Amino acid sequence: MQLVLEKRAERSATIALVSPLIAIGLTLVTMSILFAILGKNPLSALGVYFIDPLIDGYSLQEIAVKATPLVMIAIGLSLCYLANAWNIGAEGQFLIGAVAGSWLAVKTQGTDAGHWVLPAMLLLGALAGALYALIPAICKVRFGASEILTSLMLVYVADLLLDYLVRGPWRDPKGFNFPTTAEFDPVATVPVLIEGGRLHLGAIIALAVVAAGAVLLGRTINGFEIRVVGAAPRAARFGGFNATRLILLTFAISGALAGLAGIVEVAGPVGHLQPGISPGYGFTAIIVAFLGRLNPIGILVAALFLALTFIGGEQAQIAMKIPLDVTKVFQGILLFYVLACDSLILYRFRLIAASSKVQSGAH
Amino acid sequence: MRKFFVAAAAAMLATGAGLFGAHAADKLKVGFIYLGPIGDLGWTYQHDLARQALVKELGDRIETTYLENVSEGPDAERSIEQLARAGNKLIFTTSFGYMEPTLKVAKKYPNVHFEHATGYKRDKNMSTYSGRFYEGRYIQGLIAARMSKSGVLGYIGSFPIPEVISGINSTMLAAQTINPNIKVKIIWVNSWFDPGKEADAAKALIDQGADVIMQHTDSPAAMQVAAERGKLAFGQDSEMIKFGPKTQLTSIIDNWAPYYIERVRAELDGKWASENTWDGLKEKMVVMAPYTNMPDDVKKIAEDTEAAIKDGKLHPFKCPIIGQDGKQVECKGEHLSDDQILSMNFYVKGIDEAIPGK
Per the record's keyword annotation, is Signal included, yes or no (chain B) (predicted)? Predict the structure, then answer.
């Protein structure tokens, strides 16, 4: 007898639905074993990770704060990926958006500028992100340059530009040369939604982005075009769809959303511009986009879930002295199972007689 | 993977210890926020050594918790607040970048006391503390000038903040007392910990003629490069002799244990108050590693200087001090004031380079 992986005639809708659940189930089992090896009670460890943050108002807020930039960026990326355009540089667009919006905050600092400052900052952030994302898009459609490489390389350019600005021209004059701008004025700060908490207006913007993404993909011609160009480029050409225009469009949208996320993060939870404003949100969002199956609602769920593992992991460090590395192992295991289970959508296991000549894993 | 097993083993030990410990409920909870992973050496490692010393000293009355690898970005405020919410009454935030987040959380939790390392903003429930590392730098400057054959020192800087600038100046003021024509080449790596960049910087400095390498960064990479190339070097933060048994002259070791024990005692006695602490060799917050790989007469100079600084007979920034521009630096006493050192943003005469961004 032999166990082989065999391609299905068509993708299994049932598995597509239950595979994330199987993945989570397998992750929980694996983690329980790991916790037991570590000498922790698996049930209470999993409780600290997954239940405690969900029954506590403060933690719920923090989950939303953590998920906000991930959602915004991942929705934009999903449009690109659906259209077969590979924007890997959301991190750079995030940083450029943060820089562009901060410019206004720094320039109006200490003046009596009114409440127009914050909306203008958000607009600037989105605009800068879009323009920055258009660089690799134009290089692709005009010169055939790989957008994967160019968009990725532009991340470092953005990072160094931010670095230069906060160490040089924008440095807080009273900050003893430390690389940071002064704290933004109240009119340049994203307002919090609940007094005393950190949940801010950005969370509402993120929800609006999810809704807009769902409408765009499900109800508009552009959305239809994006999906067709990605899924069947030849058919799209016969249909008269303009792939070039779509690449530019999806890059611009995803850049704008990443840039918006950047300035919201800086003007919100951080409150000033400094190096290290992003713990890799632009890259984590790529994982979120795929975990959410490039679907706006899926992305929202995936971002919240990933945020939950961060918050839960932190509480596990405090409450049960579980090392941070375990949280990272945990996230890795989860991704591994999700990808492994997803292969069951297109493939299935079959037991066959040992003498059979059938080859496994046909592509 | 190896790291994971170490972590797993450590966690098991921690659980075992927990089982035999007393009840946690009536103990004072003390929290720590670390910038990096604890690792085997460097900034965070030194803070954790101090935490362990604290547990050893007062373990029956306190319970400590730490969060490691907390980035200085948007996550910091949440991590600090999590510790406050978990019932920690005294929280040490051990990197400059936690200043604003610590301040924000301190305002929200007026009954919790905070201790922020290396910052300059305080509140009624938020103290600051740091070490007078420039005192150690002065001793290094003397040793370097005596040991250098080329008369060129290589200096790897992290960020051009006052702490680092004052370290460079202190080194040069000392070195000039031995060799008035001594030169220093400085490379900024814009990071506290980046072994790749630090190693590259060390190579570039040696290629430019430097034969003694000094660093204000965390990793032993520069020490290893100096060892490979047969040059001399100073360690930083931790004892680094094992990375250059024939290379390390001494190392400036951060020793936070006495301070942590003192502050926790004050908290236990209900005597904690917001303060600005800046301790040096005398209080043993800054400790010199053994003086090695040098002749006895150089060692004697180093030891005598260390003793003189401890006794208050010698101050590295004794006036008059001439700035890079040739003008005498304003001075109201025997030496520069603490405020002047804490906000230092000029090079002394004899340094040819410019401060980045100035």
Answer: yes
Distance from CA of B220 to the nearest CA of A (A): 23
pLDDT tens, residue by residue, B21-41: 444 457 999 999 999 888 888
Q: How far apart are CA B146 and CA B280, in angstroms?
A: 24
Q: Report the alpha-carbon distance of residue A75 to residue B353 in Å, rounded.
A: 48
Chain B within 8 Å of A48 (Cβ-Cβ)? Answer: no
Which residue in B11, B65, B69 is closest to A38 by CB distance? B11
Q: Which of A145, A144, A133, A155 is nearest to A87 (CA)?
A: A133
pTM of the model: 0.85
Ranges of residues in chain B whose predicted pLDDT is under 50: 1-24
Q: Which CATH superfamily is B18-131 part of?
A: Response regulator (3.40.50.2300)
Structure tokens at A46: 């999993």
Coil, strand, or helix at residue B187?
A: strand
Q: Which residues of A touch B100 (CB under 8 A)?
A: 183, 271-272
Decide if A91 contacts A111 (C-beta within 8 A).
Answer: no
* Domain range annotation of chain A: 56-346
Q: Which of A269, A276, A323 lies nearest to residue B71, judging by beta carbons?
A: A276
CA dihedral for B345, B349, B351, B353, sign (positive or negative): positive
Q: Inter-chain contact A274–B69, Cβ cutoff 8 Å?
A: no
**Interchain CB contact of A168 with B (< 8 Å):** yes
Using a CB-CB distance cutoff of 8 angstroms, which residues of chain A are in contact with residue B83?
Answer: 318
The residues spanned by each domain of chain B are 18-131, 133-253+286-342
**What is the tens place of the pLDDT at every residue in A36-94?**
998 889 999 999 888 999 998 899 999 999 999 999 999 999 999 999 999 999 999 99
CA Rg, chain B, in Å? 21
The complex's ipTM works out to 0.83
Second CATH level (architecture) for the domain A56-346? Orthogonal Bundle (1.10)
Domain range B133-253+286-342, CATH architecture? 3-Layer(aba) Sandwich (3.40)
Q: Which residue of B has its CA nearest to A69?
A: B74
Q: Tell me, what's the pLDDT at B17?
A: 41
Question: Which residues contact residue A230 at a Cβ distance below 8 angstroms, ignoring those fewer than 6 apart?
Answer: A81, A82, A83, A84
- Measured in angstroms, the CA of A41 and the nearest CA of chain B are apart by 11
Contact A31, A37 (CB under 8 A): no
